[in-house]
Design goal:
heterodimer; A: alpha+beta; Rossmann fold; OB fold (Dihydrolipoamide Acetyltransferase, E2P); 6-stranded mixed β-sheet; 5-stranded antiparallel β-sheet; B: mainly alpha; MetI-like fold; 2 domains; two-stranded antiparallel ribbon; 24 helices; 75% helix; P-loop_NTPase (chain A); Iron(III) transport system ATP-binding protein (chain A)
Chain lengths: 333, 547
Amino acid sequence: MHLRIDDIAKAWSGHTVLDGVSFDAGENEFVCLLGPSGCGKTTLLRIVAGLTAADAGRVILGGRDISALPARERRMGLVFQAYSLFPDMTAAANVGYPMRLRRDAPAKIAARCSELLERVGLGGLGARFPDELSGGQQQRVALARALATEPAMLLLDEPLSALDPAIRGQLRSEIRLLQRALGIPTIMVTHDQEEALAMADTIVCMNRGRIEQTGSPRDLYERPRSRFVAEFIGRANLLPTAFVRDAIPGFLERRPPGDEATYELCLRPEDVVIENDPRGEAVIEDTVFLGNLARITLAWRGRKLLVEQPGRSALNRGELVSVDALRGAWVCA
Amino acid sequence: MGVRVKRMRTTGMLLLAVPLLFLLVFFLHPLATVLVRSVTDAQGMPTFANYVRLFDDPGLPRAAMRSLVIGVATTLCTVSLGLCLAMALHRSRLPGKALIRTALLLPMLAPSLVLALGLVCLLGRNGLVHRLTGLPTDIYGFWGLLIANTLYGLPQVVIIVSAALARTPARHYDAAESMGATPWRQFLDVTIPRLRFALLAAAFLVFTETLTDFGSAVVVGGSYRVLAVEIYGEVVGQLDFAMGATLGVVLLAPALLSVWLARMARRRQDTGDASPGRTLVPARHPWRDVALGGISLLALLPLVGVVATVAYVSVVKLWPYDRTLTLANYMGGMPDGYGPVATSITMSLLAAGAGVLLVFALSAGLRRAPPFIAKPVQFIASLPAAVPGLVLGLGYVLAFNHGPLSGWLYGSVAIVAACSLFHYHAQAFLTMQTGMRQVPEALDDAVAVSGGSTFHVLRDAVWPFAAPAAISTFFYLFMRSMVTLSGVIFLVTPELGLASVTVMRLDENGFLAQAAAYAMCVVLASALALGAMRLLLHVLKDRRHVA
């Protein structure tokens, strides 16, 4: 089902949280709402779920305006960050809860519960209580519960951020596989850019109640449109126009027209090429060994530059290098 | 806004409205009646004559002075002994901490005057000590009152200070130790600073209670008449309600002030660390343990001795002359038999049951209420903590003995239960609210997106977390109602006796053995209730899976 968010606005006691936000989520699409805390992404998700009322704008699901519909009638499956399982119900009872509220037949509920638990890899653990399950397992139960009533959409509110890094990575790919298999349109809220890059078909990058940029992960990484996106997703070297004119004038060709200060060039660290060169203009200030990666800080024409090289770098502090850039993107400063 | 969101709001408002209505009718209304009565004359015209009369009677300023002196003295004794007991429990390696805890339960199981009663039986002019040794003992007056009040206040101080001690993280002591601080320095620099507000709060609590409690004062005060006794005399003895109301307002002022100060203190209280970390194991330090043990004995021996004396007296044939052991005092000898005990239990069950429902609804209604509603409601619900039982009871007499509701309420168990419930409303409300604060917000939302109503939120999200608080609240209200005296003293009628009041009447008439037997019945009922509560909470803890 296709979801359209149309010009949603929301203020809490005079403070604007969402300021005219619009985007679309297509059939089977996995959309990530990405942004720093306080950017309004969770409020937006709650508005889609029907838990919070918007001040203005519409939520349109499958061509139907559901803005006035209460949460229970929206058919959304919602997974929260943590602590959303009923503590005195077993895993199976938790999963069956929405079906019981709908007064489904007990036999049907039982069958669906075990099917769903099986599906999220918890077959046989249905009799456990939440406090007898690990954090990752609890989130799987929450996921199964969200899917119980065959929702029109799946809404995930930072479902992985309370988990250990190892579990997080595993559950990340499992959620994605499940979502693809079920073909269910999904919106996930996260502040973790790596998670968004890894999972999303489309990222909606938000800042201060507005959408900064919408696009595929690759789009946002390679062609950020604003300084905020460039810095929030991945690492970026942001160079002013005057500096580019002196140091790497080749990039000026593609600069959009505008004042000197309106645009900056974003160079991703791995797109900077450096070579040992006794006559080079840059000097290596620091190298950090990260296993599969070396992170190098340069001083180049009075600016610091961050460079990443795959594998083990042979470069040492104080050595001189020449600098070139493979690709870059002009962003609004 | 969705229809459903609106409907949820409506249900929330309804949850608030009912308990608020009760607070209005059974708390604010009688309170206001006392205030109004103190500034009106017999014709209902405004006047300050009552306050002027306070100074005409030479007995009253003296009684006020005595109340102040006994209040300060009791506070000093109770807080210092309570601090030592709490230290013994939490910062020593003393054996037998369970015994200390058990002994400290005793004052909470009995009406305040039972300690005084025991003291009189032990050290009165005709007390056990005099009988056995021939020493001329006379405990009536200042010292008797001081001891009775101190013993009564001890457990509460220990509870407050213990909570603060438990919140102090062990790593603060580790840090002090690593920097070379001696145990004494650690006590001064780590322990005491984090106890300041707890001590202050405990001091205010004891001061207020001493000032407003009159059970002990009547039994052991003798000719040392304090303000609370004067009010009792004005109202019950001379039926001078205007004067009683005026004295009540005078009593209300320091109580309000001390509760306000305690609130300010709590606001500044360091709530400690979210992660307490390593549990603190007191270092070996024999002299500390000997000192704390000695002080604990000093404080607890009289406590146990006094209660044991009451138990002993209750099985004696004709106190103090014929000390043959007998169960006759329990078997009868009272015109009403166990009627008052049964009434007390009925009344307490009613207060506890209604209290849990009202407080649950109030806390549940407040969960999602906007601040401009939540704040004033919170204030009103906590206000009873600042109103002495004596003043509230007086308000009940003035408000309900006449007027539209009196036909139903006068002399009924319901009115006594209401008085007791609203006297202890603040603590019950606080307990319930603390329980409900543990409900994760995500759980509410999970019910909502699953298609549940407010009823489902309460049943499936709130109740599992609030159940232990509800159990505690129920038994707290039950036990307090069993022993309360100052509030309900004006509400009993010849047909409606209460156990705690009967104890006092029997004592006044010199039937000490029967009074003791009656007191033991109350202690037994309270102890049973306490045991039942612990058992229930334990079972629930085993079964429940609330983190």
